[in-house]
Design goal:
The complex is a heterodimer.
Chain A lengths: L6 E10 L17 E6 L2 E9 H4 L1 H8 L2 H19 L4 E10 L2 H10 L1 H11 L2 E10 L15 H37 L2 E4 L5 H4 L5 E10 L3 H13 L4 E9 L14
Antiparallel strand pairs in A: 1-3, 1-4, 2-3, 5-7, 5-8, 6-7
Helix pairs in contact in A: 6-8
Chain B lengths: L3 H6 L4 H4 L2 H10 L16 H6 L7 H6 L4 H4 L11
The chains are: A alpha+beta, B mainly alpha.
Amino acid sequence: MNEPAGRASYAYAVARSFDPALLEGVRGVDDAEVHVVPYREIVAVVSSVPLAEFDESALRAKLERLPWLEATARAHHAVVDSVAAHSVTLPLRLATVYRGDERVTEVLRQSYPRFRTALDRLAGKVELGVKVYTQPPATAPATSPSSSSPGRDYLRRRRAQHRARDDAWQRAAAAATRVDTALAKLAVDSRHRPPQSPQLSGARGENVLNVAYLVDAERAEELAAWAGRLEAEAPGARVEVTGPWAPYSFALPDGEEPA
Amino acid sequence: MTEPTGLLARRNGQGSSANLADVLERVLDKGVVIAGDIRINLLDVELLTIKLRLLVASVQTAKELGIDWWEHDPTLTTRAGRR
């Protein structure tokens, strides 16, 4: 079990140093206990995983399986979330794996200035997710007493449905603009993401806005309250707030694209 | 939504209760990219590029909706366009 050969280090996050005892009992991917790898006043949070299950070909195969992907993504996120509860945290992307803790130390040493800069920028901030959805129009208007032409009735009904959908979308889009404008003022930064697919997310309505805001932690409640108020003022739109999240969407400075 | 305190107070529970689509878009598309020793480019993973853009809410929800391509569709071609 503790055989170092054949083991790899799965890294979840880089953070400012904190008491590692706070992570006691926290388990990561593969249900492995997590520990910290320190370098100066920063740490990487890692767990030991079997190399055979996390080497390139194993990972490639497993990432194609949604149940595994879901379990791993949730485990990864749970660790990031635990770390973020105690310290300024830089979440790493899923499946960042090294051949051992010494390699992790080396990476911390190499990228130290970059990590320090990012951690300083994110100190005291949290990420909130805000989505605006269309409010699905009340079920299609009851069909008026039919004329003698069923074909024409059908077309009229279809047109009415389309119009109702367009209207719902436009109302939600207008609300989304107001929401984004207002909330961006409370935030220190924002990132827009593609809307999520309604068919598959299971959410009611169509997602017209999907944005992450970086906000001072003490203003998070204020931003959420604002979102609630804006929703109340915008019938026809549903506003959903998620978080606070560790600052995943702001881990890279604006404009810096992943290599 | 009228109870933002309730919402944000959930902080510690979020690890397990967060919507999978929200988690995936963060752990896969965001976060710091540092080169690992295990070279795996998430963009090369077909499931991720082709299908994950759909951002499944949860395996259970997807199954309820009759979406189970990850079990029956190793070629990743036929059913993607159906949604």
